[in-house]
Design brief:
about 675 residues; mainly beta; Immunoglobulin-like; 6 helices; about 5% helix; about 40% strand
């Protein structure tokens, strides 16, 4: 068996386990020690850099004494020793002369360093040969020793770690504790107390009732360590610490677990842990389920095959084939019986299944059969159906049905073509609804007329006749396409504007707008009163001034009052000469007098010799367009007496120059109060 994920993360996992720190504070290097059978103390270490090229030094002291270096020369990688060990353990041959092939830096980043560390935990001689182990042969029993490990890098010693141990008798590592067995059909799961501070991993030996004995973990130690994610953070322990996936479901097994510590010492056996044969296979299932209905009495029948494993039957009823069931028989049904009678209290749809079980409790459930126990009397159709419409939606409401077994309502509709029949209706809601109102949403550009009807559905899925229909006509809120002005030209008496006719089916006509380039108010002026007929594709503007630049825009309107976006602006400069004199409106003011019975307007325009006259425009604030309120005025005042109480008025003064310019004032507003 391969455990590559455990091995690839072994270095980091062991460092975190041995450090006893949180993930964010773990030690980068750890020193380990163990009293051995021969009275020596064996030291091993785990460093993030598995090996330092210049070697390691080991120091020892007792109490407050000075540190004493135990090794006379730095501990270095020894190819000669590796070659000797390889004669007995060929799997370490790959490490002999490794630094003749790659550098130490390359070794640190290579998976070979992880394999070397793994072998060092399994083989103490190999740990000494690759300089990650040391034996203190001069330890005195009962003495408390402090040990320190230093790595040598660039001629300088770097402290890796320290530990304290009391020299004494060898203590064997205890086996894994609290082993729990969970047998499944094709595997056996094992859980026990993980103790990464106490041992590195486990060996598992299995004995089968067929006489075979297998070491499931192979020749390697199976690491029992937490995995690390890509960011070096500890992952949770797996759901199962060991899984035997090579079982025969018909055999019983006994297992022995052994702990293997970091010094290649194996614990005694955990003792036999048994997993006896369990019958997971159900008997043959019932098939060919059929039924007969007599009002509310259902007789269910099925077919069986001979099966010695079968000891009884159960019959189940479901309201939903994927939902909870009701077991109909209080005691097991005889294994040879082929029918069952059920009396139901409601008219509805039921599902039945037959279960066949054996002595081990395995039960196989048949495929369901659907039985509709239903009345044949449909509910009365709904009444009082009404519809109302808004943009892109139809709202429906109707009177609630008084049927006791009502399941809900279904709505149907058809587009009105003047000769509809019942067969042309289509369903609106795929599932019944319980409410007595419904809103169908559509695209905003839908403007058809629909016929709607509602049908009542009972719990036996009987559909009523259609209700009386209700007609819904959706309003048109889609504007026409923006028109396109083709050409503008000046004739002898007019400016002729020509455009390409729109193709909108509900087109009502066109509106044309003009503004004077250079007009300070920059306002558009509508030239036509009513929309121009759809048969018209030109307009003649006869009210224009010589030497003036005009901009024309076109708008399309449909029969629902929707208007298009304005067309692109098209400019033309009329022929003739325009006076270069300029005029300005110096002031414009108004004042409410006589308690709202009169509004006095005053203004000053200059220079007076260039001004042709003034016109007052007025509108009520709720109106959209200003209309001329006076004729041409030559004075600088005007009193408005035609006022309605409780109304707000807006005024604008337009000053006309002799050169044809129009200067518009700002808009002034005045509120005429109601009588108190």
């Amino acid at each position: 068996m391969k455990y590559e994920r455990h091995i690839s993360l072994l270095v980091i996992a062991i460092l975190i386990a041995l450090s006893s720190f949180s993930q964010g504070e773990r030690k980068p290097n750890s020193l380990l020690a163990k009293n051995m059978e021969d009275g020596t103390i064996f030291l091993k270490w785990v460093c993030e850099k598995v090996y330092y090229k210049e070697g390691f030094n080991v120091y020892r002291k007792t109490g407050n004494e000075d540190w004493q270096k135990l090794n006379s020369a730095p501990l270095l990688w020894n190819d000669t020793e590796i070659a000797r060990i390889a004669e007995s353990f060929p799997d370490v041959t790959m490490f002999n002369g490794v630094f003749q092939k790659i550098s130490v830096a390359e070794f640190q980043e290579n998976v070979a360093s992880v394999f070397a560390l793994q072998k060092a935990f399994q083989n103490n001689e190999f740990a000494l040969a690759i300089a990650i182990g040391y034996i203190d042969k001069n330890a005195l029993t009962g003495t408390v020793y402090n040990y320190k490990l230093n790595a040598i890098e660039n001629g300088q010693e770097i402290e890796m770690d320290q530990l304290q141990i009391t020299a004494g008798n060898y203590e064997n590592v205890a086996p894994p504790q609290n082993i729990i067995v969970d047998r499944k059909k094709r595997k056996i799961n094992f859980n026990f107390k993980p103790e990464p501070l106490r041992y590195l991993g486990i060996k598992v030996v299995r004995t089968s009732t067929d006489g075979s004995v297998d070491t499931l973990t192979g020749t390697e130690t199976y690491p029992v360590q937490q995995d690390i994610d890509e960011n070096g953070k500890m992952l949770p322990w797996p759901k199962h610490l060991f899984i035997d996936r090579t079982i025969d479901k018909d055999l019983s097994y006994s297992y022995q677990f052994f702990a293997v510590d970091y010094f290649a010492k194996m614990s005694p056996s955990s003792g036999e842990i048994k997993s006896n044969f369990i019958d997971f296979d159900p008997p043959q299932e019932a098939f060919g389920l059929d039924f007969k209905i007599d009002t509310q009495k259902i007789t269910l029948t099925w077919v069986m095959v001979d099966d010695e494993d079968r000891i009884g039957l159960n019959v189940y009823r479901y309201n939903d084939p994927n939902g909870d069931s009701i077991k109909l028989n209080l005691t097991p049904i005889n294994k040879d019986k082929l029918s069952f009678q059920d009396n139901v209290s409601e008219f509805r749809t039921y599902f039945y299944k037959v279960g066949v079980f054996d002595a081990a409790g395995n039960e196989v459930i048949s495929s369901p059969t659907l039985v509709q126990v239903r009345d044949i009397i449909p509910p009365l159709p709904p009444t009082g159906l009404k519809t109302s419409t808004d943009t892109g939606m139809v709202n429906l409401s109707w009177m609630a049905s008084k049927e006791k077994d009502l399941k809900g309502y279904v709505i149907y509709k058809v587009i009105d073509n003047g000769k509809n029949n019942d067969e042309e209706y289509t369903m609106v809601n795929p599932s019944t609804i319980n409410e007595t109102n419904y809103t169908e949403r559509m695209s905003k550009n839908v403007k058809n007329t629909f016929h709607y009807v509602v049908v009542a559905v009972d719990t036996s899925w009987n559909y009523s006749n259609y209700s009386i229909l209700s007609i819904a006509e959706l309003p048109d809120h889609v504007p026409p396409v923006k028109p396109f002005i083709k050409i503008i030209k000046e004739t002898e008496n007019a400016i002729l504007i020509t455009w390409i006719p729109n193709k909108d089916e509900d087109l009502r006509g066109y509106n044309i707008y003009r503004k004077i380039i250079g007009d300070t108010a920059n306002n558009l002026e509508k030239l036509n009163g009513r929309p121009m007929k759809i048969s018209t594709s030109f307009y003649e503007d006869k009210l224009f001034e010589a030497g003036t630049v005009y901009s024309y825009l076109l708008e399309a309107a449909d029969s629902s009052g929707n208007t298009s976006d304005l067309s692109q602006a098209f400019q033309i400069q009329t022929s003739g000469t325009k006076s270069e004199e300029t005029v300005r409106l110096k002031s414009f003011s108004l004042k409410k007098k006589r308690r709202g019975k009169l509004v006095s307007l005053k203004w000053i325009g200059e220079p007076a010799e260039y001004i042709d006259g003034y016109v007052i425009y007025r509108k009520i604030s709720s109106e959209k367009r200003f209309e001329p309120y006076t004729g041409i005025l030559t004075s600088s005042t005007f009193n408005d007496k035609s006022l309605t109480k409780g109304t707000t008025y807006e005024y604008q003064l337009r000053m006309y120059s002799k050169a044809g310019d129009v200067v518009r004032s700002e808009i002034k507003e005045v509120e005429i109060p109601e009588d108190k």
